[in-house]
Design brief:
Layout: E1 3-6, H1 12-25, H2 32-43, E2 50-55, E3 61-72, E4 75-87, H3 96-110, E5 115-117, H4 125-134
Parallel strand pairs: 4-5
Antiparallel strand pairs: 1-2, 2-3, 3-4
The chain binds coenzyme A (COA).
The site of coenzyme A (COA) has 18 residues, from strand 4, helix 3 and helix 4.
């Protein structure tokens, strides 16, 4: 059975390879200080980003998810954005991704968010296979301006 718990500082050595594999999946890399800052904010109880880690029966870390809440003009309580989701390839298709999304939905509901949402690449058919089962497509198209 998959167990899901809030990420803590003690999880760092197990979180890091999953995070790096997630970045590699996106053919991306981040400067080490960005990764360090992100992890520190996730495990800070007063921090603005939340994270959870999934473990299998043997306690092996097999998935991670990160999310944060933000205000919204169309809601008094705001929305929650799920930013990162990754499941180790060895356990894909066994419900870990679904369980991680359900964990975030519970947390967001508990925090009073009116909506949980996320983005994915149009071409990510594997992820969309899961998302089409657990959520509704918004119909919105994502635009951005890189300000870096
Ligand atoms: C997307 C991802 C998180 C899914 O995790 P997962 O643990 O394999 O997903 P689950 O096992 O919970 O899948 C749940 C459902 O989706 C279905 N599903 C999983 N993979 C699928 C696929 N390739 N095609 C169609 N459906 C699929 C499962 O059949 C299951 O449906 P069911 O419960 O009704 O049988 C995982 O593939 C992953 O980490 N991919 C690389 C990173 C990534 O794309 N992250 C998301 C970025 S937005």
């Amino acid at each position: 059975m998959t167990t899901i718990q809030a990420l803590t500082a003690a999880d760092r050595d197990e979180w890091l390879p999953l995070w790096q594999a997630y970045l590699t999946f996106y053919e991306s890399a981040l400067a080490d200080d960005v990764t360090e800052s992100t992890f520190a904010r996730i495990v800070d109880p007063a921090g603005d980003i939340h994270g959870a880690i999934a473990r299998d029966d043997d306690g092996r870390a097999v998935g991670i998810v990160h999310w944060f809440a933000h205000p919204a003009t169309w809601s008094k309580t705001g929305y929650t954005y799920l930013e990162d989701l990754f499941v180790d390839p060895s356990v894909r298709g066994t419900g870990v991704g679904r369980a991680l999304i359900a964990h975030v939905a519970d947390a967001a509901r508990g925090a009073g968010s009116d909506k949980l949402y996320w983005l994915t690449a149009e071409s990510n058919s594997t992820a969309r296979g899961l998302y089409d089962r657990v959520a509704e497509r918004s119909g919105f198209i994502h635009y951005q301006i890189d300000l870096g």
